[in-house]
Amino acid sequence: MRAAWYSTNGEACDVLQVGDLPTPEPCSGQVRVRLKVSGVNPSDVKARRGRPVESGVIVPHSDGAGLIDKIGEGVSPDRLGERVWIWNGQWRRSMGTAAEYIVLPQGQAVPLPDTTDFQAGACLGIPALTAMHALELAGDIDGKTILVIGAASSVGYYAAQLALMKGARVIGTVGSPEKAAVLQGIGVTETINYKKEALAEHVKHMTNARGADIVIDMDFSSTRRLVREGAVAPHGTIVTYGSNNMEEIAIPFRDWLYQSITLRFFLVYDLLANERHFAIERLNQLLAQGKLRHRIGPSFALDDIAKAHQAVEAGANGNVVVMIP
User: Fold this and answer.
1) Are 129 and 276 in contact (CB under 8 A)?
2) Can you give the pLDDT at residue 44?
3) C-alpha distance across the termini of the chain, in Å
4) Average pLDDT along the chain, 325 residues, taken 10 residues at a time
5) Which of 27, 74, 113, 216 is 20 to 30 A (C-alpha) from 107?
């Protein structure tokens, strides 16, 4: 099969290769998916740069979509030919979705509604499930003010939509007027350009000095300052799924304690079985009902996978995808 891979860490143009690898065969309880699209996420880029290569060859990317073309023992024959989207394709395993085929446990190949195309399907495993679980951890948000950090990003775009569906008031941070316009298209009319405006001061102004009830956070290393700066309401909640600094991060304990701030961390790759089941079921319901908008960014051929990684590194607008021939 045609596939992309790397054997050492490094820059995309230096380490990514495209060629032929053996076509995998499904074992008991597994399915083989003929991939149509592979999704590229920031975590894929970070893994290529610095996660140790222990298996000799890594076929990157955890997200993808395609058709089940072969099944292992114990899998219903009804699944042959089924349109599916994939989660955790390259989590704790060497063979990801940047290839013609992937074999994985049947539960990791989720039926994809006919109304959702493969490009959108390749953006669900990390971005949409992250947004879905973040909003679940936020609790009852009806009538509350939610600050979505990076609301035009791959996760933030879904999180903003889901929050609006649950009756929340959404304030989104953006880096440009163009991204603010993108958010207006899904009903987010209140945005703050963090590159030009003082974020905390604007949040306080927009909330009558109370602060946001909930923060959906993509970079805890910077967002933690919002508590001390008064941009998070007393008894507020910060739900965080990422940080530019992955080591020790200090917080002003007195500020957080005296305001009774709740902090929720989670890793989308490592959801509990019941949490993932709920998120997948709810997500597929919304897809079937046509209630979710998708923000597909640049698309690349498999042979140009290095350019796809570079686009993610450059902060491409929308979810970057690789088309599998």
Assistant:
1) yes
2) 96
3) 11
4) 97 97 98 98 94 91 98 97 98 96 98 97 97 97 97 96 98 96 97 95 97 96 94 98 88 95 96 97 97 96 98 94 96
5) 216
Alpha carbon distances (Å) from 42 to 56, 310, 317, 319: 22, 10, 13, 10
User: Could you give the CA distance from residue 231 to residue 206 in angstroms, rounded to a whole number?
Assistant: 10
User: In this structure, are residues 35 and 66 in contact, taking their beta carbons and an 8 Å threshold?
Assistant: yes
Residues 41 and 319: their CA atoms lie apart, in Å, by 8
- CA 174, CA 68: separation in Å to the nearest integer? 38
- pLDDT value of residue 247: 84
CATH 3.30.70.1030 applies to domain 127-269: no
Q: Are 31 and 77 in contact (CB under 8 A)?
A: no
Quick one: CATH architecture of 2-123+295-323? Alpha-Beta Complex (3.90)
